[in-house]
């Protein structure tokens, strides 16, 4: 019996297989928003235009009601907020987050932000905002007079000027609208020499539900806000200064009386954050806590009555 010849492996078979593997790896990287911002943005646009060629378009929670996204940017802060077709961003994470905040917003097809709020000039809050300003259309920047001579902050200020973005000076009591929501500047209530004390603190209200964002405001600034007699109570507290013991005093926590707390912090950071004393304080107050170093990006949505929470990772 004649021996059958094995089919020869054609050269293009290997090329096609290699290309398929590379495409799968690339699509996975795009889906995890892992490209540098100058590559991630066009990749997201291609994915949206093709109805999810690279990753499922419904892989993120749909924007509805009031959507507050605490983005996992590592050791830093960044929150994306959407309501009624209007969007804003509070802080943008550090330089080494590689534009993740901008990429996250762009993955939703958002091209315009009504506001950006650099709470204070520190790099772990403002580093990623330069990519936001460069890649998206930003209408207003709410800022204090606090400055620093770091290249990161100077680059952001230069970009804001070059893009002709309207600068609104943060003043306690000022109120702004975002879709059907409103937010009020609660701090700083006076001038300070320390940039953390100068953190913009704002309370976001949507019908019967509210969120309090505190930047890195320490106990000194907290005490001054309490002394004004303003109503600081909120359903959700963005815990101050990444859970540092310099913030979230017992008096401040009692006044806010949150149901939920969110700590934005990097996994395995060298600062020992969040501090155990703060964690104990939050637990004793009955606050249900979420952490970006443990659960990744945290999305909270409300219809004005109830709040739902979705996390990127299981605790």
Provide a short characterization of the protein structure.
With 315 residues, this protein is α/β, with parallel strands linked by helices. The chain has two domains: 13-59, no CATH class; 62-311, Ribonuclease Z/Hydroxyacylglutathione hydrolase-like (Metallo-beta-lactamase, Chain A). It is built from ten helices and 15 strands.
Tell me the CATH architecture of the largest domain.
4-Layer Sandwich
* Nearest-integer average pLDDT: 91
Kindly state the percentage of residues in helix: 25-40%
Oligomeric status of the shown chains?
single chain
End-to-end separation in angstroms reads 64 Å
Task: Identify the strand order in the major beta sheet.
Answer: 6-5-4-3-2-1-14-15
The run of helices and strands is HHEEEHEHHEHEEEEEHEHEHEHEE
Which structural class should the secondary elements be placed in? alpha/beta
Number of strands: 15
CATH homology superfamily of the largest domain: Ribonuclease Z/Hydroxyacylglutathione hydrolase-like
Low-pLDDT segments:
none
Quickly count the helices: 10
């Amino acid at each position: 019996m004649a021996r059958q010849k094995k089919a020869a492996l054609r050269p293009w078979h290997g090329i096609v297989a290699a290309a398929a593997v590379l495409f799968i790896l690339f699509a996975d990287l795009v889906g995890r928003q892992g490209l540098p911002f100058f590559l991630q943005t066009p990749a997201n646009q291609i994915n949206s235009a093709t109805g999810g060629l690279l990753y499922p378009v419904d892989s993120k929670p749909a924007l509805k009601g009031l959507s507050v996204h605490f983005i996992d940017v590592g050791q830093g802060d960044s929150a994306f907020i959407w309501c009624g077709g209007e969007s804003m961003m509070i802080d943008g994470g550090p330089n080494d987050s590689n534009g993740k905040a901008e990429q996250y917003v762009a993955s939703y097809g958002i091209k315009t932000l009504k506001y950006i709020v650099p709470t204070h000039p520190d790099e772990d809050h403002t580093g990623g905002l330069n990519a936001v300003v460069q890649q998206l259309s930003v209408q207003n920047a709410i800022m204090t007079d606090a400055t620093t001579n770091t290249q990161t902050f100077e680059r952001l200020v230069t970009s804001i000027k070059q893009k002709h973005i309207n600068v609104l000076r943060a003043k306690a009591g000022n109120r702004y609208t975002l879709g059907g929501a409103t937010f009020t500047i609660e701090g700083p209530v006076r001038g300070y020499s320390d940039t953390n004390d100068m953190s913009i603190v704002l309370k976001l209200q949507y019908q019967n539900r509210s969120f309090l964002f505190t930047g890195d405001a320490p106990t000194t600034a907290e005490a001054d806000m309490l002394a004004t007699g303003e109503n600081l109570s909120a359903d959700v507290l963005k815990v101050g200064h990444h859970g540092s013991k310099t913030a979230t005093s017992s008096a401040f926590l009692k006044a806010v009386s949150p149901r939920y707390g969110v700590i934005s912090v990097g996994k395995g950071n060298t600062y020992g954050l969040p501090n155990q004393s703060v964690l104990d304080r939050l637990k004793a107050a009955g606050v249900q806590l979420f952490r970006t170093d443990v659960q990744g990006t945290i999305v909270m949505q409300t219809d004005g009555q109830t709040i739902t929470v979705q996390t990127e990772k299981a605790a």
